[in-house]
Batch of 3 targets.
Target 1
Amino acid sequence: MKQFRLNQKGQLTIDFLFAIVLVIGISTLLTALTFALTFTEILQYVSFAGSRSYLAADLTPDGQLKAANTKVSELLGALPFVNAKDWVEVSTKKAGNFGQDYKNRGVDITRNQFIGYRIDFKLPILGINLPLLGDSITPPNGGTQDSNFRATVSSYLMREPTASECQRFNNNVFRALLRLRGEYGAAMTNASNGPEEFSAINDNGC
């Protein structure tokens, strides 16, 4: 009976091609994770810069909000790959008091510690399909990669009272003094006809 020897020529080439595909795939995966984490850290700083601009006193609350949004827009406009297809997409960015959101989650909000800036974004760069590996990164809670690779960064630094808020506060104080009984209330009544004639000097807030 004639025996046949199995021909193994080219086996090393097949092993090499298989290995190189895996190496390239894993390298691509690590690169995508590196970019995603880097973008997240950068956006964290952007939210801090927006919160810092929102903190500073201004004439009105709208002025504080405009200053925060302007700073964030300037920083995002200078960043590469932000809002680029298949990289990073910023969905919402806003300043305000987010205490109610945390209260709905059962967090104690007795202090105003949730006033600042928040940025919501998604990372399409993580939705990659690699040869032999397929969908290597599984989105949280199932669903498609495009809809679930989302994150939120925020910075909370409080907010200084504005000039209009301080003036309103001083007017309320003046009206309260007018309602006082005794010589002090009478003297205030004789000195002024109302808070419109009362001039307050504000130093470092109210």
Target 2
Amino acid sequence: MRFTREIVTLNDLDGVAGEILEKASNYKIFCFHGEMGAGKTTLIKSICRKLGVSDEVQSPTFSIVNEYEDSCKKPVYHFDFYRLKNEEEAYDLGYEHYFFSGYFCLVEWPEKVKDLLKLKKADIFIELMAEKRQITVEYD
């Protein structure tokens, strides 16, 4: 399955975040693709709002993973693999604990660990365009 939406203002994001969670409701791993500054973290903030996360959501660039709590007190994991030099570093982090937990895993820069993400996942591509962003979601 695949769908595409265009985002013109930040106000459009919450609707798209809700649609992503609704249409890909059988998925817990969401991989966010896009160049630096495309809006990956901003979309993740909207998805976390929809999940009822009340913590401040920010990119875990230095910690690599942040853990939040959703409205049901379940963990939501947010990864930023930008700084990883190789997949071995993800093993050292204990990625299996997170990816096989059954909880939401929101992954920025998934191409850094592509061999570890051969799991059931939804891929979200954010493309910068003149005056807007295009978000394409792909899932089985």
Target 3
Amino acid sequence: MRKLILTVCTLVALNAANAQDFKHSVSLSFGAATPLNDFASTDLTNTNAGGASDGFCIDLEYKGFLFHEKIGLLAMVKNQFNGVDNDYIALQTPQNTTSSVTAWSLGGYMAGAFYDVKVGEKGFIHPKVAFGILDANTPEWKIENGKNVLVKLESANGMAFSTLFGADFGWNLGNFKLQAQYDFILANPQFNTKAVDGTGTIISTSTINQKMQTYNVKIALGYNFGQ
């Protein structure tokens, strides 16, 4: 009987150690956003080149175990900024003029699911996938001669369906957790661009579809609750 009690207690302890120790969590992450493929291209013969350079992202994420003890829901508020490559700017700046260029921006809301893989007693891996609608803005581009604006390509806005694939690697520290997050973001917004001269008169308009692909590496601090 004593052995049976010890065996039962051992099994209960093992099950408790492997059970999900929280039902919900929120985390704030910050990291680098590296552009890929057409979005990063500086080839002037590539009509889909975005000329984007490395940037940064700030994301707020919620996770909750609602479907299964291993499968949960995630929701994300995303903000991302990518600059424009200096060499790409120089290639498109006429002699005796200067260019001032703002950044690409991307923000919006995403929702999806993750799978919980336990690593030891406190570690975890969360493969994840999410989808959403993201709002993007092109850089504003001014070509100037001294203090005079010769041409301004105004910032254009576009919305697009977006996909995220990634994984989080983390460590639970009581109610807190530390994570390294790796995400791949894909979106293809359409922009209606407009160029004006120094007086604000429209010079040209065009419609472009910009494939925006980035690889994001982030560090996140989270809080677990609802045990």
